[in-house]
Hints:
2 helices; 475 residues; seven-stranded mixed beta sheet; mainly beta
Amino acid sequence: SIRGMKEDEYDSSFERDGFAPPAFTSALFRKLLHVGGPNPARLDVELTPYGKIRGRVVDVEGKPVANVTVSIDGPRMGRPLAASTGADGDWAFDKLLPGSWTILAKPKPAMREDKDGARAGYVFTYFPAAAERKQAAPVIVRAGAEVSGLEIRLRSVALYRVRGVVLNEDGRPAPDVTVTIHSKEPATEGAGTTMMGAARAWYPGVGMGPEIASTQTDAEGRFEFSSVGEGDWLVRAEASWGFIEETKRDVQAVGSLNLSVSQKDVGDVKIRLATNFDLPLSVDFGSDSEAAAGAAPRGALMVVLSPVDGGPEVFGMPGKDGKPVLDRAYPGRYRVMAQTMRPDFYIASMDYAGREITGPIEITPGPQPLHLVLRKHAGVLRGTIEKGAAATVILVPAAGAENEIVRGVTCAAGTLFQFDNLRPGPYAIVAFDRIEDGRLSDPAYVSRLLNSAKTIAVEEGNNPSIELSVNRWPD
Length: 475
């Protein structure tokens, strides 16, 4: 009970040892409470007890392995989760949200060479003994429960050398450049998500898998990785950031290459660096008065370029002066996604260099803008949850969802939910008791979630309503 409060809208937070704060039990949690009037305001919140996972890492003979980094990926906690094994190969995580977790052991590079020159060593291994994330066994953690006795048996595989050179844009060797090598499999850790008004948005992307090694180029731009297993890899080179005083721009040269390793060393890798450039955004507001000025209110527009072949997304919003531009774009092939929160507007179409964007496009330096057309009379979708239950509601366009942004809002008990700025068309909508937002950037996973979704049509300027029942989030 809190007394003596003036009439206002209040946010809230709750803490107790052994329990997750409400902001972590739902990535979208936010419940404003109005205090005032003749009756006391009431706020009921359910805290979720943390779960625990314990286990150990062993080698191929079942012997414990110390000093192995173990990382765990699952429901977002707002911080990376990693531990190092002790002398008995043991590791533990004791502040976990309920849900599905993926566990990865990352042994330190150590190569063995036999008398014939063949090399082998331990590689990154997912629980229980998988080389790839898709083969990993998920570990289900219940609220307040402990899962123990898990054993990760490290995989020993043949290892090969990967050598190459990094070149500047003019073709000269690039010294002192950081070169990393990553698994090509998509990684949910760090998946793309951002707030757009009252809704959270998740955008699909390949991203980058775990980094297995890192090195620096020498004076001749050369680099080498001595312990790479067979498979498909993403090799990425990044120079240090710099600043150009004349243009007031931060600049960095980067480059990447998809590489396949199979049964032999690879010695001819060449990575060409490219510097970030300004990609202008031309925004058409139709008949709106701001169209002539070409301005977009800060926070009213979001554009995401997701690299088709993997790598960090390019994320852009209008600058402080309202001038739309992506100042850290790099040449490459991208999927383009965009969202607006400008009241009553929706994104009607996008084109680049005069060509309509219907799939992945090649972005190159130059004056050609990425052109977005916004129209008025956006659809608004409102709804309620059956029996006034609390839920997280996600909304996805029913057609072409593999390249679309997923939206989500939290609906507190007894309240309405609402989605704004909707483009006309059919949408799939579904409510869950909780979410693991790290999974909502995976289009394949989202498609499975939509098996229990309803479909609703949104028309220009129309405000349809719907009632949803709450589904249990799948473990």
